[in-house]
Design brief:
Elements (H helix, E strand, L loop, with lengths): L5 H21 L22 E2 L11 E5 L2 E5 L12 E4 L9 E3 L10 E5 L2 E5 L2 E2 L4 E2 L3 E4 L7 E2 L11 E5 L2 E5 L2 E2 L2 E2 L2 E6 L4 E7 L8 E5 L2 E5 L2 E2 L4 E2 L3 E5 L4 E4 L11 E5 L2 E9 L2 E10 L4 E5 L10 E5 L2 E5 L13 E5 L2
Antiparallel strand pairs: 1-30, 2-3, 3-4, 4-5, 6-7, 7-10, 8-9, 10-11, 12-13, 13-16, 14-15, 16-17, 18-19, 19-22, 20-21, 22-23, 24-25, 25-26, 26-27, 28-29, 29-30
Length: about 325
């Protein structure tokens, strides 16, 4: 048998290994890291719970907070008639139910609802069975009482959205007599005066908007050449008037409900093509990342969402594509 001493094979083996390494390295390429996908694991283990139902089932309803209570304002009833009904719910009352509150001066649906310095504002929307765009603006001052008319929107429109920022109300998009809008209008409650600082990069209606810190996040909605649901997230800096982009929603959504808590943006349900969504997601602006959240108990669009007392509420809306109505009032604990 032929034996090879260690002094003979070691240099050859080392040379062979060097050649293999060099040849192998010449064929290796390093790909960039893929764009992170939304987390597949929900960011909460909590579950939705049913709370007292609305007195009146309705879709395209405005939901807001004032005086420590949740307000459900206007909307569409099953017959397709705009409602002037206003209800309030106090979550601190054990076994509490919704109560009637002063009605709006007009029936309205798909209006924007926002709170500034304790006053509740209802802006724009559609009137009547023919969904005529409204320019009406109404304020309910702290302590209740009656709704008071304020300076009208510069351009009447519905399916718009609004958010409070730095003591003013910023109103985005919607549908006017000419179609889907790119408008931004700003209302100063102290002066009862409107201004128009610019426009959105993307025309859209049935959209969501949330303010976090110095920025305003505009997401989803309906637009484009086919007027379909959108997955766009665009970020507005009201101090400069500039726009930037963010990561897209996990799926296109229109007529979804949105709310902010703890610097996170919650997006609930909505519509995509011919289906109503039960899925939800959460956006963390600090990480520029979407994550999944606990799905709604049932598919829902055209309702409203608010955060109060450590709970996220999803109220009213439609359970099927088009006009259907629900009296649902579900909530989930959030950190």
């Amino acid at each position: 048998m032929l034996r090879i001493s260690s002094s003979m094979w070691k240099p050859s083996l080392i040379l062979l290994l060097i050649l293999i390494f060099v040849v192998g390295c010449s064929s290796v390429s390093i790909s960039p890291s893929p764009t992170p996908e939304p987390a597949s694991t929900p960011v909460t283990t909590a579950r939705w719970e049913a709370f007292p139902s609305l007195l009146t089932s309705r879709s395209s309803v405005g939901i807001g907070i004032a005086d420590g209570m949740i307000y459900a304002i206007g909307g569409l009833e099953l017959v397709g008639q705009s409602s002037d009904s206003v209800e309030t719910f106090d979550p601190t009352e054990a076994g509490g139910a919704w109560q009637r509150a002063p009605s709006l001066p007009i029936g309205i649906h798909n209006a924007a609802v926002v709170t500034v310095e304790g006053s509740l504002y209802v802006i724009g929307g559609f009137q009547g069975r023919r969904s005529i765009p409204s320019s009406g603006v109404y304020e309910l001052a702290p302590g209740g009482g009656m709704w008071e008319a304020r300076a009208s929107l510069p351009v009447a429109r519905g399916a718009l959205t609004a958010v409070a920022w730095n003591g003013s109300i910023y109103v985005f998009g919607g549908l006017d007599k000419d179609g889907v809008s790119t408008r931004i209008d700003v209302y100063d409650p102290r002066l009862d005066r409107w201004s128009t600082p610019g426009s959105m990069p993307t025309a859209r209606s049935h959209l969501g908007v949330v303010a976090v810190g110095p920025l305003i996040y505009v997401m989803g909605g309906r637009g484009g050449e086919e007027n379909t649901s959108l997955d766009l997230l665009e970020i507005y800096d009201p101090s400069t008037g500039g726009w930037g982009g963010g990561p897209r929603l996990s799926i296109p959504r229109a007529s979804m409900s949105v709310a902010e808590a703890g610097g996170l943006i919650y997006v609930l349900g909505g519509e995509d093509l011919d289906r109503t969504l039960a899925s939800t997601e959460v956006y963390d602006p600090a990480q520029a990342r979407w994550s999944t959240f606990a799905p709604l108990p049932s598919p829902r669009h055209s309702g409203g969402a608010v955060v109060l007392g450590g709970r996220l509420y999803s109220i009213g809306g439609s359970s099927e594509p088009g006009l259907s109505i629900t009296d649902a009032n579900d909530a989930i604990a959030i950190e």
